[in-house]
């Protein structure tokens, strides 16, 4: 790493600012709210992934942070600055778009340098900055080419270069990997993680891909219909989902959710089968991850419907009192062709959710 | 080709050949006639073989007729028409596509409607307006009754008058407002990636910078295509220059060509001279097409996607 590289790194690291959203809301027609008032604090230098199904408002949220959409209410601060009424260029943030949005008629150099040119930076300085960024991203040999002559991964890197050349304190990514094929996506994920470690910009990354979210994020913000379902580390999101929505959204295959009824001592299925001891009354939803179910000896009976051997493990689809239950077992587990499975649900691996709100009830099983 | 049958191929070729004959036959006759002398034509009529008087005829065009000056008029009209149409279309399409224009679709529809109202249909009203550009204001003053008031106070109503007939401006202005160009640019802008605008905004480029730095360079093929099309339209325009220009030194080359045939009955027009004139007048648009034809195709193809 040479001296110039370090200066860009440290400039971005120094500019990285926390993003604070207070009461931010968005409505296009004044009646239906795409984003109801929402509060969140993204820490300085943190890599935050905004995850949610399509139409959940995650792109709108990002565009409001970027300044491409106006907020209908509330405030957005970068550090101590209130930015919600500023133009994008005044906010000190940069964005990488889903389909790169490179300027097709400009060379790679011109693409990266354009924002500096608009800002009126003198040419020698511009050249120096662009070359430093190109070196960092391995684009030095491609500076004279047009975007049309580049591969998908190279275009992606140019788009990133264009974003970081201004040394933004906030870096925004709008589903940047969704146009790449599986292998390239994996490589770019690695590159992005390395880049973030190096430059340390406050990063917001919007995606609907849970793998990207789990691997890249310091913290994941899960959005559902404009509301924050959970905002926590990947580990916490996986192991302590705050709601049925989160539990079902993260994990492949997703968590099993079965409706149960508590009589103060045990939880039962609708058909009366006892699943686990738990001193609660009323209707609940019980969740357990496919890989947490133990197959073999056990009190719980389920009928095997289908099995898929995936090499590293096998996925079983079973019928538990009318509910579909997915079970992940180590490959080759000796279950033969038995139609009836005996299962154990380890209590510490169980999640209990309110039947109506879907919110998690913490400590339901750890108390035992 | 959907099918590859031999007989179908033959028929298709025959149709093409007939079409070519239909177009090229008269053109060929133009060329051969332009190479004969007037006397030769009077004796033999129009013939299908070339003679040796072509350059004599061309020299006569330049020395005895007003065609050279009229070609200059044509050039001014065609280039003016093409340039102004390009700029107007580009700007109006820019406004329609990239800004939330209230009633944008209504505006666009009314722009498109001009395609269905070519100059040939509205030539009389256009002539009226051109003969007095301010006549709509006069009419307005009459309608709202202000003129009656003025006539009562000052003794005479206000009658404003400004004629643009027999001027280059008058020849160009009614031609430039045409929906085709707006449509062409609009379609081109619509297929551009939406994120391009956002990316430019993130880079700090305002609407004007975006227009000049991003949109204009990208639109070059569409510009070239529209320029060629309107240039040709302006060059070959007949009806409007015919009515709007009253003196020979304001007429365009196409009108001048038609005027080469004498109005008197019983006199055989000097067809070799006229045909030589037609050849000379065709050269500029031909060169234009030859130079810009690859843009022409690219611009039109891009707009269709």
UniProtKB/TrEMBL annotation, chain A:
Membrane topology: Peripheral membrane protein
This protein's name: Glycerol-3-phosphate ABC transporter ATP-binding protein
Gene3D superfamilies per the UniProt record, alphabetical: 2.40.50.100, Nucleic acid-binding proteins, P-loop containing nucleotide triphosphate hydrolases
Main location: membrane
Superkingdom: Bacteria
Gene Ontology MF terms: ABC-type transporter activity; ATP binding; ATP hydrolysis activity
Compartment list: Cell inner membrane
Boundaries of every ABC transporter domain copy: 19-250
Presence of keyword Nucleotide-binding: yes
GO (cellular component) term, any one: ATP-binding cassette (ABC) transporter complex, substrate-binding subunit-containing
Species for this entry: Devosia riboflavina
The UniProt record lists the keyword Transport: yes
Any one Gene Ontology BP term: carbohydrate transport
TrEMBL record, chain B:
Transmembrane segment boundaries: 7-25, 75-97, 103-125, 137-159, 171-192, 223-240, 273-297
All residue ranges annotated as the ABC transmembrane type-1 domain in the record: 71-292
CDD domains: TM_PBP2
Keyword ATP-binding in record: no
Compartments reported by the entry: Cell inner membrane; Cell membrane
Main location class: membrane
GO CC, alphabetical: plasma membrane
Domain of life: Bacteria
InterPro entries: MetI-like, MetI-like_sf
Membrane topology according to the record: Multi-pass membrane protein
Keywords carried by this UniProt record: Cell inner membrane, Cell membrane, Membrane, Transmembrane, Transmembrane helix, Transport
Biological-process GO terms, alphabetical: transmembrane transport
Function: Part of the ABC transporter complex UgpBAEC involved in sn-glycerol-3-phosphate (G3P) import. Probably responsible for the translocation of the substrate across the membrane.
Subunit structure: The complex is composed of two ATP-binding proteins (UgpC), two transmembrane proteins (UgpA and UgpE) and a solute-binding protein (UgpB).
Homology family: Belongs to the binding-protein-dependent transport system permease family.
Name the record gives this protein: sn-glycerol-3-phosphate transport system permease protein UgpE
Gene that this sequence comes from: ugpE
